[in-house]
Amino acid sequence: MIPFEYRRADDVATAVDTVARNPAASFLGGGTNLVDHLKLGVTTPEHLVDVTRLPLDDITATADGGLHIGATARNSDTAAHPDVRARYPVLAEALLSGASGQLRNLATVGGNLLQRTRCPYFQDVTTPCNKREPGSGCSALEGYQRYHAILGASRHCIATHPSDMAVAMVALDATVHVHGPDGARRVPAAELHRLPGDEPDRDTVLEHGELITAVELPPLPFAANSAYRKVRDRASYAFALVSVAAAVDLDGDGTVRDARIAFGGLAHKPWRARRAEDALRGGPATDERVARAADVELADAEPLEGNGFKVPMARGALTATVRRLAEGRG
Ligand code: SF4
Q: Cβ(117) to ligand 1 under 6 A?
């Protein structure tokens, strides 16, 4: 362990200023990912600013009928909140599928969004990894690829984003509230995370010193008919091979009026499936139509030698999820 300075922040402005002024400073949320990285030597900050005591843990209805979720709300509290469970069940299910109960009690909404890939080479400092050490190479290109990307990857990095919660938020058209040295701004959740390109060390569009303060879910009445499905190697405490977040609006005869779909486990970011949504609208939610919609979305997939199974797995996960919603969630 490398020595570092620790300070607990009392207000957002001081926290942002402290981190922004020092390139070797980081925010500390629940620590369920960052503390692992400190122990492994993946990151070596000089200064940690603990933001967990900031008054940002409120979950409240917004004036337009949406939901405001403070960045330091714990994952367990968010998953259990009555409005989340009733109006955005896809988010509750995604949170409950991620990690153990103990971790959910510590992990925050802001930290969950900013957790880093679980690519084994990223976490192993004895191996080359462009995300951890730019320019050093990508060990996964010729290595273990079971959990890696089939969409949007580059020759510099084929990692996937590990968050379940973020996939649900992207499907729900959430907006991320950010406070930085230049003031506040809002970022659509779908645009928060980046594809790797030639800068795989940058996971998000946030600049150093920008702090996530909240996430806002827009009013979306048919989000009450939403669900999250996670396919993984074990029944719990495992990251997604493939996951699907979906909300479907059906009329009385079963025609899809509208849909929101995002995939996890397929790319360096939660993958909003707008082409699949377009393909689903205007017809019945039959397995055949849903499978075709998945194929439209996955037409540009480039499976690797070690993860070709993800294409049929994603098709099957979307089909099963929409079937569940068409039958009334169950
Ligand atoms: Fe590193 Fe990305 Fe390659 Fe994994 S896939 S070794 S995170 S560069």
A: yes
Q: What is the mean pLDDT of residues 38-63?
A: 95
- Mean pLDDT on 208-224: 97
Which residues touch 35 (CB under 8 Å, ≥6 apart)?
none
The reported pTM is 0.97
Write out the H or E segment, with its range, that includes residue 294. helix 287-297
Spacing, Cα 297 to ligand 1 middle (Å): 24
Task: Give how far Cα 173 sits from Cα of 31, 151, 248, 260, Å.
Answer: 26, 20, 14, 8
Gap from CA of 155 to ligand 1 centroid (Å):
10
Query: Token pair 């988010």 is at which residue?
Result: 91
How far apart CA 265 and CA 243 sit, in angstroms, is 6
Backbone angles phi, psi at 32, to 5 degrees: -70, -20
To the nearest 10 degrees (0 to 180), the angle between helices 287-297 and 310-326 is: 140
Torsions phi, psi of 79, nearest 5?
Answer: -65, -30
- At 235 the pLDDT is 84
Nearest atom in ligand 1 to the alpha carbon of residue 149 is 5
271 lines ligand 1 (CB under 6 A): no
In this predicted structure, what is the pLDDT of residue 101? 86
Q: Are 259 and 246 in contact (CB under 8 A)?
A: yes
Per-residue pLDDT, 92: 98
- 145 alpha carbon – ligand 1 mean position (Å): 10
Whether the CB of 149 sits within 6 Å of ligand 1: no
Cα–Cα distance measured from residue 229 to residue 290, given in angstroms and rounded to the nearest whole number: 15
Q: Tell me which of 125, 130, 156, 193 to substitute to probe ligand 1's pocket, judged by most ligand atoms within 8 Å of the beta carbon.
A: 130
Spatial neighbors of 289 by CB under 8 A, at least 6 apart, are 279, 280, 283
Amino acid (1-letter code) at residue 145: Q
Domains defined for the chain, CATH in brackets: 227-326 (3.30.390.50)
- How confident is residue 83, by pLDDT bands cut at 50, 70 and 90? very high
**Atom number in ligand 1 closest to CA 128:** 6
Q: Residue 305 contacts by C-beta under 8 Å, 6 or more apart in sequence?
A: 145
